[in-house]
Each structure stands twice: as C-alpha cells, then as structure tokens.
Amino acid sequence: MKNIKTTIKRTSVAILALVAISFQGCNLDLSLQDRLVEESVWSDPNTAELYVSGMYGVFQKFQFGNFPNLGYNNAMDALADGMKFTSNTLGNGTVNTLISNSNYFSPATVGLNFWNPGFVGIRRVNEMLEGVRTKSKLSEEQKIVYEAEGRYVRAYTYFWLAKLHGSLPVFRSLGDYNSKDKPRSSEQEVYDFMIEDLTFAADNLPKTNLSGRATKGAAYGMLSRVALYAGSIAKYDNKQFNTDALTGIPQAKAKEYFGIAANAATKVVELAEEGLYALDADFAGIFRKKDTKEAIFRVDYLAPNITHDYDLGYAPPRDAAGNTLVYGVPTAELVDEFEMADGTKFSWSNPVHAANPYNNREPRFEATILHNNSIWKGRVVNTTEADVVEGFVEFGKSGDPKRTVTGYYAKKMLDPNNTTFVVNKSTQSWVEMRYAEIVLVLAEAKAQLDDYASTTTYINMLRNKRGLNAISVSGNTQAMQAIEHERKVELAFEGHRFWDLRRWRKAHIELNGKKMTGHKITGLGTGYTYEVVSADAVNRSFTGKLYYLPIPENEVQLNLGLNQIFGW
C-alpha cells in the first residue's frame, strides 16, 4: 500500500504570510475595509486554502528540537541531559546560561518564552474558524475539515504554552476577545480544551491528505501525546512544587487521562494495521527517506528555496573545515545509555566493555552517535585530544570552540550524502511525530493503567524492530524504568527528553546540582584510555519552581484579568 503521512509543504507558508498580515490589525477602526478583506479571503477557495495552510507555520518554530526564543536546533535536548552546547558566548551559549542558573527565569526574563507568538497564532486560528463558519462559500464538508485542521493546530499551540505555564487563558472563539482582560483557566480546563479540540480533529480529518497536512493519524497521535502529559501531571505533581490555585491536575484524574492516551494511541496502531504507518527497520533512514512509513507528521524541504541548516550546525568540523558550527554534542550520559547488541546494559565497570566501548553496541547507537574511529563520509573520525581540528577540547577553554567538548558528535539526522551544506544548506525532513513515539506512548499509558502485559508487548514491538532482545516488565517501577530508557535512546535529539523529565517531575532530580560529562580519549599503544571529564563548568540548576514558568511581566500588565502564577 502507498505510504500515507502528514507532510507540511513549507512553500504554502511563505505565501500565506501576506494573507495573514491583514488580520493582525483588527483593533484598528477600519471596519469596512477589514470586512471586505475577510469576505474576499473566505469567498475564494484558493485564498481560504492559503490561510489554512499558513497556520501550520507554528510547526516550523519547533523543528529539529528548536525552541522559538532560543533559536538553535537541539536546544531542547541541550536543556536536558543528552546534549551539551559547546559555546559560552551569547546566542548559542544562552542554553548553558539557562541550565546553570535557575535565577535567570523571572517574569522579566522568562527564559523559555512562547507566550506572544503562541497566542497570536491561536487568535489567527480563531479568526479562521469564524471566517469559515460565517463568511465562506465552501461546502459543509470542506468547512468541517478546515475546522478540524484549525483545532488541531490550536491544540498543538496550546500544548506548548501549557507545558511551560500550566494554567492559561482559554480562547474558544472570537467572542472571547471582546474584553482585553482575560483570566487564566485551570490547568485541567486547559488540557480538557486541547483534548476536546483533538477529539474533534480526529473524528473529522481524513485518513490521508494529498495537501500534506493534518490527518486522522496525526490527530490521534497528538491526542495521545497531550493526554499522556496530562495524566503524568495528575500522577506526579500533587501540588508539591507550586500551590497556585489554578495549576496542577487532581491525582484522581490520572487514570482517566492515561485511558484517553491509550485509546488514542490504539487508534494509530489500528491505522498502522491498515498499512498507513509502520516501524522502519532502517533506523537511520527514518530521518532521511521521504517514503518512510514511520513518519506520521513531518515538515519537508525542497532546495533551493526551502532549506534548513541542521548539517551546518551539527556536522563534525572536517565536513567543512572552518565552517561547521558544532552547536551541541552528545553527553556521555546519553552515550552510556545505549545497550550492548545482546540487550545487556553497557558498563565501564565491565572490562570487556571498557576495552572497546563502541564495539557490539545496539544498532541505534551507530545511527545516533559519531565517536572515535567512526567511519563518516569516507574518513575515520578522530575525537582524541591529539586531533586539533576534530578532537576533544575541554569545555570553557574557548568561548566558541566549534568542536566536541564531550568526545562525541551527533550523527542522527545528519545527511551523510550532503557535502555542500555550507553553500546549499540541507533538505532532510523534520519528523515532528513518528510511529515509534506512539508505540512508546501506548506502552507507558498501559503501564500507568496497570496493564503490564500490554506494556511488555509494545516495548518489545519496538525493541524487536530495532534488533534487540525481548524483555518482560512487571510492576510500575520496572515498567517506567524500561520506558524511560527506550524514550531516551529512541527519541534522542527529537526534543522529548526535557519535557519527559518535567512531566514525570524528575527534572529537579536529574538536572539539579549535577554536571554532565564527556570522555577525554587518549591514544595508548594500540588502544585508548577513556577519562570521564566534566562537560559543565558549574553544576546545573533546576528547582521545583521551574515546573511552572512565569507569565511574561508585560502580559500581566496589559491584561488586568491575568494574575501571575503563584511564586513569581
């Protein structure tokens, strides 16, 4: 069967910017002109299509693990424990400031700020919904599909805001903008609103979409992701870190949300059984091939006009001497997480492992990590300190070293065939959601529902496809340990780890008072020595207060109905 997936065609987004601008000045006293513009947009199926297509621009803001106000790919993994940003300078060194000083977060300097662009995007969706319902001459069938797409994008946007702040103002329609003073709704109400939107989207989107936008599978997948997050907050937060009346979700609701997540993920599995999706045996190829069935929702690029700079930011130095930027590199904590090929845990205490630490590792290891003696683009990578171009340099010795500070480079998502990325940039797709994530969501939701047999089944479904042995889990602790391991390894550099630690309320344990490490490798005869070295200049800092980030100060000043989250 033909592979069907959701693909954002970025060419539409640039065109739509011209259309969308006309809706941003709706507070001006130009009602007649404004009405004429709106009516002309919604009466023409072509301009209506451009407007709806343009809403998907929000997915570009988070491509390749970027966070909008940080502006660098893999920034979200660098906020966690799997990647270390190499620079101390302003810009790509900002992540290192955030992870080392929790006091940097405040209402004046939020640190991770998506408030304004998020709510601008939500308003734009609500304008579209109003226009389609009241002004368009589209068929009723097309109106419903557009509404489903709009509500899908709205939920995705709200999800990012909710992960940051928890409690938010909820704008269901343009009528909610009649007053500029809009209070926060409770965190539970925010998640219920997203679930309502995504349920509608899943019910009304087609299984396939030749326009390359949201599909039923993408909506069910997002629903499972959102509900899993809500269930995690309900189970693990318990008002331990913030006593704001509107943040948190009652623990009694946890299983209800996990049930929603399990049911939605099961719907995606059923679509896979129809032939729409599948786990891809070629792990490295998932991030390069345009026909992989693993992609449920992705952003495509097309040279020469629609490109990105992932390879420029992460390729090792000899790929383009003097030009590669090496924003971030994998930590030893991530490298050591990958199992041996036989499924046993890797350990430096094991003399066989320690003698040849990169031999006989599981297949995902070589697809994810470039290490000393890796074969890459026809050469042997040398990450020993002796190599002054590509080898190890101690973090902090240079403000912007543009080489590894851990002894490793990120391989996953690089294009091994791209040798002209400095001039021509890159075109590999960003996979926002893939089938492996949904399998892991289903495994986790089942574990939280005490169905450990199903958890075992879905973990092994993934492990089998990745060439690993089957395991068995019983009990919540063992199940969650296995799921956390699989998510850390399978989804490395895809922007999940930081948010996983937050929803499990483990970030203050894993990311506070610790330094991530690397391996300084030195040649010794015909072998090597591996010295564990710090990749951080100071201890990392994550306090419980950061589970609910403050609302930007200027937003509270403008919206008199908006009170600041307690503690900020």
UniProtKB/TrEMBL annotation:
Keywords: Cell outer membrane, Membrane, Signal. The keyword Membrane applies. PROSITE patterns: PROKAR_LIPOPROTEIN. It comes from Sphingobacterium tabacisoli. It comes from the Bacteria. Residues 90-228 form the SusD-like N-terminal domain. Belongs to the SusD family. It is found in: Cell outer membrane. The lineage of its organism: Bacteria, Pseudomonadati, Bacteroidota, Sphingobacteriia, Sphingobacteriales. Gene3D superfamilies: 1.25.40.390. Residues 1-25 form the signal peptide. It holds the Pfam family SusD_RagB. The keyword Protein biosynthesis does not apply. Residues 293-568 form the RagB/SusD domain. This is RagB/SusD family nutrient uptake outer membrane protein.
